[in-house]
Amino acid sequence: MADGTILHYDTLCTGALALVDLPMRDAWVREQLYRAPLPEAARALNQLCQEAEQASPQARVVLMSVIRALLHDGAAELAQRLREEAAAGSLLSLDRFLRWPTYQPHVDDPQARALPQGADRSLSLGERKSLARRPDRRAFDRLLRDPHPDVIRMLLGNPRLTEDDVLRIAARRPNFPDILGEIARNVRWSTRPRVRMALVLNPATPPEVAVPMVLLLVHHELRLVYEITDANAPVRVAAAELLRRRPPQLDDAPPDGDEWVQ
Prior knowledge:
Elements: H1 9-17, H2 22-35, H3 38-53, H4 57-71, H5 76-88, H6 92-97, H7 125-133, H8 140-143, H9 149-156, H10 163-171, H11 177-185, H12 193-201, H13 207-214, H14 219-227, H15 233-245
Helix pairs in contact: 1-2, 1-3, 1-4, 2-4, 3-4, 3-5, 7-9, 9-11, 10-12, 12-13, 13-15, 14-15
């Protein structure tokens, strides 16, 4: 519920970038979006999207927190109100950013999914979740292929998990949309450029997750997305639009020392 808090693009970026701890940054951004009057929040986000379209590294860093905020449980109403405000106020960059419905995980019943070949079918869901929390890599090969999003969520928080492990999950085809959604919502792994690229390129990633992430890509990544034919059509369209809009001379280099390069 808005309480009249003033929110501008500069205060959004300055406040977010001042927080080095990523969960704290995400929580602060989410709080600002809920507390500010809707028109102000929409205008601030529209400028943020404009700056990201023009390859501002700082804007793209903050935008990742916004994406995770809108993937957060219970954010569907806020996203819809922002979408309506963008349409009514001709906020074109925000409108492009929110062009797809809000992400809704668990479309089917994850417990009804068959375990992959080689998996121990005697293990219950609770036992697999417990294994995913343990600092023991011997079970990782099986857990990385687990079809249940709760197991993957536990595994993504395991300190022994590596970026290459996450890439194996994010790049797997075929895959489940809610598995890929768990990676997109994870503050540790969604900041990694290789992981984000794998999510954008995977045709199983829901467009409402992948299309906003296109704004975070650098020039050569955008061209790759546009040229790869098995990427989702909406994702390729978004990449083509951004390639036309973004100045071609920009190198799109991320800022050193931020989570963008962690």
